[in-house]
Amino acid sequence: MATKVIMPQLGESVVEGTVMQWLKHEGDQIAEFESLLEINTDKVNSEIPSPASGVLLKILVPEGETVSAGSTIAWIGQPGESLPEGAPDQTPRAEPARAAPSATSVPTPVAVGRDRELGFISPVVARLARDHNVDLHAVKGSGEGGRITKKDVLAYLGSTSSSTQPSGQAEPAAWETPGEGDLFRPTEMMFPTQPPAPVPQTPPVPPAVASQPPAAGNGRLVPHSQMRKRIAEHMLFSKNTAPHVTTVMEANLQQVVAHREANKPLFARDGVKLTYTAYFMAAAAAALRANPLVNSSWREDGVWIHDAVNIGMATSLGEEGLIVPVIQQADGLSLLGLARIIEDLAGRARGHRLQPDEVQGGTFTITNHGTAGSLFATPIINQPQCAILGVGAIQKRVVVLENDAIAVRPMVYLSLTFDHRILDGDSADRFLSKIVSILEKWS
């Protein structure tokens, strides 16, 4: 009897996966527990073993397609065996959504995260809804527990765009129909409460088509990887969701450098490499506990302050992109514990061995861009978090001490990019100055 291959749920909060590569083709023999395909969930790739021995009879989900956990993605059976009666020859698609609301209604923007009525809303779904003025309450979700997926929104848009206008009905006003430029318009323009004053009509300008190589010469196209697409979507969504503001301070790391030099041999005896990242992580955890508003997320009904301090650590994967493994309950760990977890997560991230749950649940993020020599930067917030800390390169610089003496000290620029809807300059500076104080007074 043929056996279903099911899209697994690789983590408590992971509800869908993308088929990255089929390691076997239809008709190939496969043994039980042999690797069958590679899937991607939140930029984490995992090889999925075959649930049975036999022949790969049918692949239902092609490479590059995303389906919800629990979906049947393939069938395995014996050579010449037919699929069970009534088995679909492809993965079911989202059902057509309900009729669209009237053109005069303006949908309320839905924030990323868990909505009391709609369930979990992913960044991709929220961005699509915002860009196309879709009321998500009118979209029928096909994901687990009725969750609305990207395909549901696209199916809804397809069904509404194919419907014709009733005879004699006026076309929607220009302010009701977002165009390509709306991605960068202020929120009040994207979700107006009343039409603005009419503007003079100008002939439409056809969009530029970049189908030919630039005039400067020949080149080559590098196709976007699945990870690069997700990074692009998430970063663009973040910049168009939260008003970004960055504040920068400088910290004297003389005490930290001395402490690290004195303790590196002790940590090495325990098999742990003591890096500066552990100090920044410890200082940020203590500052978050002292300033809980920074450890929060914006919601339409208020600011949600997280109880847990879960700090994400941006880790470069070279040209592939970056991934952000999360240190859970970072404020409850010692410097040794932090250093041990940082080394483990960074090593497994670069080796593509992270589990999907290990990149979930972050409440704050640190990016150490100084490892490449950068002095300071203005990083993008990792939605739906409130802020991200950028750590620059540690350099010896000439500084003037409090007694007006001139000395050479190991200095670092720290930049905090924050959501101005949640934090003001004073509260953001208070948090960043707390980090500076902890680092400069390290003992």
**Which structural class fits the helix and strand makeup?**
alpha+beta
Could you tell me the strand content as a percent range? 15-25%
What is the third-level CATH name, the topology of the largest domain?
Chloramphenicol Acetyltransferase
Q: Count of helices?
A: 8
**Percent range for helical residues?**
10-25%
Distance between the termini: 67 Å
Largest sheet: 7 strands, mixed
In one word, what is the shape?
A: globular
The CATH superfamily of the largest domain turns out to be: Chloramphenicol acetyltransferase-like domain
Series of secondary-structure elements, N-terminal to C-terminal:
EEEEEEEEEEHHHHEHHEEEEEEHEEEEH
**Integer average pLDDT:** 81
CATH-scheme architecture of the largest domain: 2-Layer Sandwich
Give structural attributes.
4-stranded antiparallel beta sheet; OB fold (Dihydrolipoamide Acetyltransferase, E2P); Chloramphenicol Acetyltransferase; 3 domains; lipoyl; EC 2.3.1.-; acetyltransferase activity; alpha+beta; 443 residues
Set out the fold topology.
Elements: E1 3-6, E2 16-22, E3 29-30, E4 35-41, E5 44-49, E6 54-59, E7 66-68, E8 72-77, E9 113-115, E10 119-121, H1 123-131, H2 150-162, H3 187-190, H4 226-239, E11 244-252, H5 254-269, H6 276-290, E12 296-299, E13 302-305, E14 311-313, E15 315-316, E16 322-323, E17 326-327, H7 335-350, E18 364-367, E19 387-391, E20 395-400, E21 406-419, H8 425-440
Parallel strand pairs: 14-18, 18-19
Antiparallel strand pairs: 1-8, 2-4, 2-7, 3-6, 4-5, 6-8, 9-10, 11-21, 12-13, 14-17, 15-16, 19-21, 20-21
